[in-house]
Each structure stands twice: as C-alpha cells, then as structure tokens.
Specification:
With 241 residues, this protein is of the alpha/beta class. It has helices at residues 3-17, 36-50, 70-83, 113-119, 153-164, 180-186, 204-216, 235-238; strands spanning 26-29, 57-63, 89-93, 128-129, 135-139, 169-174, 192-198, 221-227. It has an 8-stranded mixed beta sheet with strand order 1-8-7-2-6-3-5-4, with helices on both faces. Helix 2 (36-50) packs across helix 3 (70-83).
C-alpha cells in the first residue's frame, strides 16, 4: 500500500473522530470486475488524449445534485494521476467552508487560494501537501462569504497561470451541494468539465439541463462519469457472460 494511499485513507478515517469540442466526448462507468482505480486510470488516459495540446490541465468535476459522489471521484482520480501516471496534482475544494462537506481530505487550512490572491501573498501558504507525494490540496477559501472571482477575468486568468506553472493537473471539486450558479460560471475558465452522474438516480433531463447551462456559459464538456452503478446479476453469472 503506497504512502499516498495511506495518507488519503487516514484522512478519511480521522474525519469521523475529529480547446475541446463542447460536446460529450467520453463516458466512463465503474464496471463489474474492474476496480475504481482502473476506471480512473482510463479516465485519465481519455482526458490526456482530448487535451493533448494542453500540457498543464485545469479540470472541473461537477454534479447536478447532492450525493452523486463528486468528491469521491475527484479524490480517486487525483490519487491515480499521482501514483500511476507521475503527475503533480492540486485539488481545489470549493466546499471547504462547510465543515460537513470536508470529505475529500480531512485537513485544516488557515488560508484559501482566493484569500491569498486578495492579499497578494504567495499561494504556497494555501497548499497542503500529503507527505512527500506530489498531491496537494487547497480550499477555494476559508471564508464562507467569499465567492470565486468569476467576474474578475484578469485576476482569474493570472491565478490559473500561476497554478499551471506548478502543477500538471488542477482539479476543481465543484460538488453538487455548492452554489450551482458559481460552479457553472467557473466552467468558462477551465479546460474542460467532467460531469459526475449517479447511475439510476439522476434523471436524464437534469443532466441535459446542466449540460446546456455549461455550454451557454462557455464551458467545454469532456464527458460523464456514471457513479454508483448497481448490478442485479449475481457475480457467478456475470463472469460467464
């Protein structure tokens, strides 16, 4: 078991005690007999293919409603990108200010990247590094009232440029229970959006509505992750199919 995996799992355990075409280009789902890590590795490969001309990628993971598992997918994708593909990864958590939502990484941060940007200070203060790995975490802000600077295009572009200089992958965890309007507005400034959908729960029209909003705001949809897919065929029979 790797150090980074142990760090991530320990963080979760401690919580209980303390340009691309705008059309959908890929789809992945957790398949029977295939681990989540393998699925995330495949997703990483597809994103690398779709954004081949973009060496340092800014990806937003977005859900349409609460409980679709956006944070879980972001965490697993980040772990695979670091461990299996040797990437340096920064996870930006847009819901950090809500204590009940800190399920990605159970860490306490004094600053967020927006807080430091406002003060003109070094962004390094906002990064939490997991051991000696290349996985870093940062909240959007530790202030619940501070929204992403979607209207300040110049400041936003400058911020993304600084982050791209340091990391191969920047993953924005826009979980579905954060401010939807802010999350949608942010999509115009990223390289692509990955929608996370709970299989069998999220209605098609809800997904289509979210897709239209993203496209209307200038975002590009890389694809969809079907999460929590259920299988009704017993394992013994499924393996014979």
């Amino acid at each position: 078991m790797s150090n980074i995996y142990e760090a991530l799992e320990q963080a979760c355990r401690e919580k209980t005690s303390s340009g691309v075409s705008p059309q959908m280009a890929l789809q992945t789902e957790v398949s029977r007999g295939i681990s989540l890590g393998e699925e995330m590795s495949w997703l990483h490969h597809q994103i690398e293919y779709l954004l081949a001309t973009t060496p340092h990628k800014l990806i937003q993971f977005l859900g349409s409603r609460r409980g679709e598992g956006v944070s879980t997918i972001v965490r697993e994708f980040a772990k695979v990108a670091v461990e299996k593909h040797g990437k340096s990864v920064l996870v930006l958590d847009s819901a950090y200010q809500d204590p009940a939502r800190r399920i990605n990484f159970n860490v306490t941060c004094e600053y967020g990247w927006l807080d430091l940007m406002e003060k003109g200070e070094l962004l390094d203060k906002a990064f939490f590094r997991f051991g000696d790995s290349n996985l870093f975490f940062a909240p959007v802000s530790v202030q619940a009232s501070l929204a992403p600077p979607v209207e300040d295009i110049s400041a936003t572009v400058t911020l993304w440029k600084k982050l791209r200089e340091r990391f191969d992958l920047i993953l924005i965890d826009s979980s579905s229970d954060t401010n939807t309007a802010e999350s949608i507005a942010l999509c115009r400034n990223v390289d692509g959006v990955v929608l996370v959908v709970e299989a069998g729960k999220t209605r098609r029209r809800v997904v289509e509505s979210m897709k239209k909003k993203i496209l209307a705001n200038g975002g590009s949809i890389l694809g969809v992750v079907l999460n929590k897919r259920r299988y009704y065929i017993p394992d013994a029979l499924y393996k014979k199919l």
